[in-house]
Amino acid sequence: MASKQQARYAVGRCLMLWSSNDVTQQGSRPKTKLGITKYSIVTNSTDSVTLRLMTEHDLAMLYEWLNRSHIVEWWGGEEARPTLADVQEQYLPSVLAQESVTPYIAMLNGEPIGYAQSYVALGSGDGWWEEETDPGVRGIDQSLANASQLGKGLGTKLVRALVELLFNDPEVTRIQTDPSPSNLRAIRCYENAGFERQGTVTTPDGPAVYMVQTRQAFER
Length: 220
Fold this sequence. Notes:
By secondary structure, the chain is an alpha+beta fold. The chain has one domain: Aminopeptidase (3-Layer(aba) Sandwich), CATH 3.40.630.
């Protein structure tokens, strides 16, 4: 089904690397384009994680990723497994753009390793962030595609790359995410990437750990 919150849920709570839960399960929402087609962050290791804008040609690959067990676990369970038609409808970049969500594919050494997305928190709708008044706040979600790559620091690299990309836009004031309280891997991932816990909040998907990184903290 193609609702903002479903896409958000899928991505955000799915992966420790996906956004909130390692790849947490959060859905999709597009963000205004920054005119950036690729962004890379060099880490202390020889590996670097890059982000490129997702295209329609990536949807079949994304469908396969979203049906992997380590992602399904955080995306509503077996009943919520998306069909190819679901993914083609919900994650088409032009559709996500209508919801102020920008989708990315994470790359490592030239190979796709995960999905990420950013969205404008203000006006998210469907019960999400209804008290938000700052147009500069961005939410993020992301997940690693391969279970074998979990727990190796790639999620943190991915999140850091996404954070740096977003703060490259001077209009962005704060970045937030909302992993499930039980997704300890995602929470650690976000903390390692500079996010701070602000407490537990109630979302349309249930309780979540509200985590933020401000521009001021990022630029210290």
